[in-house]
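Archive entry: two folds, one per protein. Generate the first.
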Amino acid sequence: MTKYFLGIVAFAILLSSGQAQAGLVAAWTFDNDFTAGAGGAAFDFTAVNGASAGVAGGKFGNAASFSRASSQYAFTDGNVLTVGSDHSYSVWYKSDVTEISGSARYFVLETTFGNSPSGTGAWSASWALRDAGTGTGDKGQVFTHPGGLAKEVFGANSNSGIPEWHNIVVTWDNDGGGVGTGRHTVYLDGVQVGGAVDDPAPLTAVEGMVIGGHRAGTGRNWDGLIDDVAFYDHVLDQGEVDALQAASALIPEPGTLALATLALAGLVAGWRRRRQNRVLG
């Protein structure tokens, strides 16, 4: 009985171990550290100025924590996007600031160029909060940098003023607006906001990404928690966006889940047969 019980435990661990979901280019849970849970070591983050991971209170498990006063951020030189290809990204964030004031911008993430944080324009992916000017919340902004021109894809109230978890999903359909024209779609907390936005030029090359800050690393840093960042190689549909609202991006693939479930069922059946034989014998 003991060995069957141990087998069941082993497969239960497999089911909850965070297998990579299909289509993930890279993903990070920050449950223990800044290493990539999908994509390999090339996407591991390096913490700067004391940024920490494995902090309790994440959206799913633990999270990464950043202090704006200490200019904390984390950087990877992994290429999360490929020019000319569809992509999507998702990130959960929780601000420690109840109301941003003035012209300050608090960046959750932004891609960069040159394999190091720099001021060079390559923000093909960018998400930040700033003062909405209404006194009722902060404005979230998705920016992109096609063809050398900065363009706001989305800007609207996206933080209630009360520190709580929010999710942003951005998709890029490389031919969505027609030949030679890409299309951005933005979802806030699982709901599409505004209409899709067409960009008349391809996205700029990407050679790295900063979380907890903008492309130069310091200057517009985040204050609070970031959890479950994921980049995909396709345009997420509404069903996939809905799934991200309820569970981590790092879940067992359907095939892995089915095989593990069958194996678990086999272990239970074997244990029952063994027990029956003992009773009859």
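Generate the second and append.
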Amino acid sequence: MSRQVLLVRHTQVALAWRGRCYGHSDMGLSRAGAAHARILARQLAQWAPDVVLHSGLRRTRILAEAIAAFTGLPAQADPAWMERDFGDWEGRSWAAIWRETGNAMDGMIDDAEAYRPGDGETTMEMAARAIAAWQSLPARRALVITHGGPIAAIIATRQGTPVTDWPRLVPATGACLELP
């Protein structure tokens, strides 16, 4: 049997974080996000995974643990699936970051190998971490609750998509993508 992977982006985060940079920050879900996670958990459990992984951040753990309750599988944390580390940008509004840095934030795309937003992780460091996590998946049917950045990096790498097009590959919150 060939490997199947279901990548799921966490559901909507707490409303206080709307419009803010939150990469590695650990916040919960909004009421709508929690309700969506409860519905999604039942549906995802029917996919019958062999393993349920999540990034370890609360916004992924909530959904993973709900799936685990339906499947009887443990929800396993793997920090390799975390979102990009935005360093000292974490928790700040995107508008404030823009006022401070202007179009320098374009370096995440224009200089993906070297630009460190907030002295955090480069785009290619995040991508390498996500690809390594992808390549080390332990099961034939792996369900991974993760974040937009790692999902976009995996899709882009598999498709040979240039970094300039990666932002369009970031899925909506709660979106699911099955990959062989």
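Annotation attached to the second fold: The beta strands are 4-9, 51-54, 75-77, 141-146, 176-179. Residues 31-45 form the longest helix (15 residues).
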